[in-house]
Structure formats: C-alpha cells, structure tokens
Amino acid sequence: MGKQRIEEVFQDKLAAGQKLFVPYIMAGDGGLDILEERLLFLEECGASAVELGIPFSDPVADGPTIQDAGIRALRNGTTLTSVFETLEGFRNKLSMPIIFMAYLNPIYKYGIEKFAADCEKAGVDGLIIPDLPLEEEALVVDYLQEKSIALIRLAALTSPEERLREIAKRTEGFLYAVSVTGTTGARAAHQANVINYLRDLKEITDVPVLAGFGVSNPEQGRELGSACDGVIVGSKIVELLYQDKIDEVKRLIQGSIYNTSISSSSTR
Amino acid sequence: MTTYAMPDKQGRYGKFGGRFVPELLMPALLELEEAYEKAMKDPDFTEELDYYLKQYVGRETPLYYAENISKQLGGPKIYLKREDLNHTGAHKINNTVGQALLTKRMGKRKVVAETGAGQHGVATATVCALLGLECVVFMGEEDIRRQKLNVFRMELLGAKVESVSQGSGTLKDAVNEALRYWVSHVEDTHYILGSVVGPHPFPKIVRDLQSVIGAETRKQMLEQTEKLPDAVVACVGGGSNAMGMFYPFIQDETVKLYGVEAGGAGITTNKHAATLTAGNLGVLHGTMTHLLQDMHGQIQEAFSISAGLDYPGVGPEHSHLHDTSRVTYTSITDKEALEAFQYLSKIEGIIPALESAHAVAYTMKLAKEMEPDQSLAICLSGRGDKDVEQVKAALEGNKNG
C-alpha cells in the first residue's frame, strides 16, 4: 500500500472535516508483545496514522522522554528485525498507515534495499529519518521509491525559504513541520512565529502539513492544527502510555482532531 | 601522484563524511562553511589567527630531538613535536582559537562544546574567556570523575560544565548532548567541535586549523635534518592531532604515516576504542565513517584508559586514509600506554598525556624495525599532568592486584 495508503486515509479524514492526528510511540517500549494492543487502541481513538519509533543508541534529535523510551526498548532487546516480525503478525487488523521514525544508522546497517523490501512486506507505509537532510537522501530514495514507501521530509523553522520549497516539493505522504527550534519533548508554548510558518508551508505544498515537536495538550493541538492539517504528538503520548494513562491519550487525540466539537470536559 | 584534494563539495572523503544531521542544523552548517571559506581568504582573519597562535598559544612549538630514547631504542632518530608546550597543555587550542575567532566573525556570542579528557573543554573555555564569549561545555559523568582537575579549570575560566549521565557517560554521549543543545540554540550559538569528526565542514575546519602541527614539523625536520622524516606517528581517537600532523605530509610518498588507536584491554576483547582496526561502516554524529557498533547498528561503548581516545567513531578522513592505505592504523593497549607514559617521563623528563603515550608506545615497537640513519617524528599531543592521579591509581592497582 505504502504512500498511497497515507494519501487516501489522510484525504478521507480531511474530507470529513477532521484534523489529522499522528501519535508517536516507541516500538518495544513496554515490550513488543503489547504493540498490537497499543496500535489497535490508537486507531480506535481516532489516530490518522501511527509514527513508530525504532530505538537507536544515539538519538540526537530527541529530548529526554523519547531517549528514555528508546533505552527501555533497547534493553528489551528490540531490533528492526523483531519489529518487522511483530508487525507482520497483525498488520491486517489495522487500516491506518504505519510510519517508521528511524535514525539512519540502524537502517544502513540492516541494508537499505532489504529494509525497503521488509517495509513493504510488514505493511510499513512511510519513513521519517531525522538525520537525513536533502543533501544526503540519495542514499535511500531509489530503494524506497521502488517499493512505494513514502519518504516524509522534515521542514524546520530555521530553513530558508528556498530550502522549504525544495523540501515541500520532494516530500511524500505529508510534510512534517518541525515546530520548535530544539529536540522532541513537551513544551508549555510555541514561538510566536510558528503559526505563520505553518501557513506558509501550506501555501507551498499540495500534501497535508503536520506540525510536530512540542505538542502536549489538545489546546496546542488545536492551535497548531488550525494553521495546518494536524499534529504529530510524541513525547506526551510516550509518557502517558508509560504511566498507563490511556484515558488521557484518548482525550488528547479526540480533543485535537475535532476542531469544532470541543466539549467542556476535555478543555478543563 | 595526483593532488590530494579532500573533501569534495559535499564534504565527502571518498565514501566517508557528509552531513547527516537534522534539517534544523543544515542552515547553520551551510552558514559555517561559507563563513569559514571566506575567513580563510581574508588576510585580516588569518593575520589575527597567526597573532594569537604566536603570542597567546606560544607557537611555534619545538621539534625536540629525543636523543636518550633514540639511543636506548637503537633505531631511528626520534623527534617529538611538543604540542604539550602549547598554552593549556595540548594541541586542542590550535582549533579553538580559530573557531572562536570565527564565532565572533559570524556575530554569535555563545559557544557550546563537548569534551572527553577535558583538554578540548579547557581550550574552549580559555579562548572564550579571552574573546568574551559565553561558554557551555558538555562532559560525560564518567569523564568528570576521571578528570576532576580539568572540570575545575573550566569553571575557573568562566565556563559552565554540564554533566552528561546518558549512555556510558563519556565523549560520545557528551557529543550527543552538545548537538542537542546546539539544535535548541543554533541561532546565537556556535558549536566548537573538538575533533575532525561530526558533519561537514567540521572535519575540514578542524583539520585545517590543526595542520599547523604538521606544517611546522615538516619545516623543522628540513631545518634540523635536511630531509623529511621516514615515519610520522600520532595517536587517534577522533583524530584531530593526527590529522593535523599527517595532512601536510600526505603527498610526501616517502613519509610513512602511522595512526595509533586505543586498544584498551585488547582488541579481541570488547573493551577498546580501536575503531579503524576493529570497527565497520556506519553513520554517527553527522558523518559516515568507521564505528564500533553491534550487528543492529547500535553504537557500542568505547573503552580506553585515556579519556581523550574514548570515542566509538573516528574522523571520516582517517577512514578514507585507512581505505586507501595512505596511513597505517594500529593499536596500543592500556598496559603498553602506561609503560610508555613512565618510560618517556623517566628517560626524557617529559610526562606525556596518556593519549600521546599511545603514540610513544607504538614508536617503541616501530623503532626496532628502523635504522639509525632514519628519522621518526611523534606528535606529542599533550602533557600528562592531568593524568598523573589516574596513572598513580592504575599502577598501585597493578601492584596490589
């Protein structure tokens, strides 16, 4: 399915008047045994897709919450191989897209060609590589294209306009708008210029624009979502799942996707 | 021989190098590259750099003919490039002076750096004090324990030292934290990377700034012996002193170059830092190079008695020079380094840094295969004062064990 599944699912949700919400979870945090249960739960809550983190020993783009989740996953013995095997076992029970968030080295070591083939086999539809800028992506693009795996590019607040245009042009599935100047992790507030940045990105691309990094509550989700097509939430989801607060996960997702139906209970 | 012209425009040394960083950092790397290339063509900048290297750092450093060890070992004439005599006690300041001047030129007021042994941290804190820049240094908690004195030095110099407890609490983890800090403060902060590692243009900038070591050595050898050395030896962690020493000799085909990695407890154990000798290809800290990693691409901890060599990667240009066999890379164990540390102290009255002791130890082996009419230059990258406490403990441990 690959890229096409991301496009179709996102278009359906947007056409129904929803905002997109992509939760991030770390594969293997809590053990791979609970991955199926967690993904089914997220889909049931209304997640538009899931971003599945592949643990890496040196995650330089991540803040403390995701670093710790990665360490827990590695201690469980989580590997790319075991994640692929686990996904294959239950992929057909889920209809939402699955997107990997993986640093380059574990993929490179696995072998990029084999990685792309196994993504297709396990039903992984897209890929985010946080340490692979435009300048270096030739290393992977052909292999991914051959299997129709979307390579989702990241835009940054520091990127000059010319780079943003190139990133927007090349991205597949959606555009990942990194919305803080920093690493992943919950933030109390975003910089004032973020809304304009998101609106500008909307203007230069045809694919959905999702804001990520630093989103931790439905208010932020709606605020950023109002300027683009939705949000990606990582650290907060990882933290809530780790603390077993699944009701709050549900509230966070549903409070973000329904722009108009904000119930008083979810806003406090 | 064709002219050696690395890196290419993409920051590649053959298949190694590159810029594997988050998009957030790309504009800063491009800005740095442009600022650096312009600065090096600007006489105002290069004259200022030369001024500080001479009047503040104390260059040029002597090339000392170590007659005692040369005679005892019975092989070639051995020369020591005395980088230990630089201000702050190591070669690290050659790089930090240049990058701090560049920081000011780019209009940035803050500096972040990582440090292993603390030498780069001290050298960075020093130039930041000199030039009025704010300075934050990330250092692994294990290294903080090993190098308490350098932590206090940095604080005296006005720097803020941040302890890093993630991972093995050594240099690799300090680089991760420094990169994260840079990602969050990139608009007003320059990252003064301390070795020929990381994304382009850092490996090139650090090499160029350190190549004053090799350029002086080459000139001094010609002055003192009227010929080039037959061999040049330097220790390699990330590889900045070695790259600075080797670079001016790369096209001198008669000069054999030897890079000495940290063999730790031995390269057949899992406790070493011999990346080129025992590692394989991967991507870490923004560059493609040889790494110590497991079969799943997770980076492994490096081990060495010397905090400055304790790094699971190596500069991409070293990987290239290894692949093309221009440089021979080898390793020396902790035990051999400790012996060389004491040997040089007793025979020449020079206490070397534990890092540099690896180069001395390999020279002791290499000298046996060379002739008295030959010559050899060692980059004595730093002085050993910082290591005496640790060496004392190690030697007492040996006696008691």
UniProtKB/TrEMBL annotation, chain A:
Residues annotated as the enzyme's active site: E51, D62
GO cellular component annotations of the record: cytosol
Molecular-function GO terms, alphabetical: tryptophan synthase activity
Keyword annotations: Amino-acid biosynthesis, Aromatic amino acid biosynthesis, Lyase, Tryptophan biosynthesis
InterPro entries: Aldolase_TIM (IPR013785), RibuloseP-bd_barrel (IPR011060), Trp_synthase_alpha_AS (IPR018204), Trp_synthase_suA (IPR002028)
UniProt-listed Enzyme Commission number(s): 4.2.1.20
This protein's pathway: Amino-acid biosynthesis; L-tryptophan biosynthesis; L-tryptophan from chorismate: step 5/5
Record field: transmembrane: none
Catalytic activity of the protein: (1S,2R)-1-C-(indol-3-yl)glycerol 3-phosphate + L-serine = D-glyceraldehyde 3-phosphate + L-tryptophan + H2O
Annotated signal peptide: none
Principal EC category: lyase
Family from the record: Belongs to the TrpA family.
Complexes and interactors: Tetramer of two alpha and two beta chains.
The protein's role, per its UniProt record: The alpha subunit is responsible for the aldol cleavage of indoleglycerol phosphate to indole and glyceraldehyde 3-phosphate.
Name listed for the protein in its UniProt record: Tryptophan synthase alpha chain
Organism: Lentibacillus populi
UniProtKB/TrEMBL annotation, chain B:
Superkingdom to which the source organism belongs: Bacteria
Tryptophan synthase beta chain-like PALP domain mapped to chain residues: 58-382
Organism: Lentibacillus populi
GO MF annotations, alphabetized: tryptophan synthase activity
Chain positions with N6-(pyridoxal phosphate)lysine modification: K92
Lineage: Bacteria, Bacillati, Bacillota, Bacilli, Bacillales
Functional note: The beta subunit is responsible for the synthesis of L-tryptophan from indole and L-serine.
A Pfam family reported for this protein in Swiss-Prot or TrEMBL: PALP
Record protein name field: Tryptophan synthase beta chain
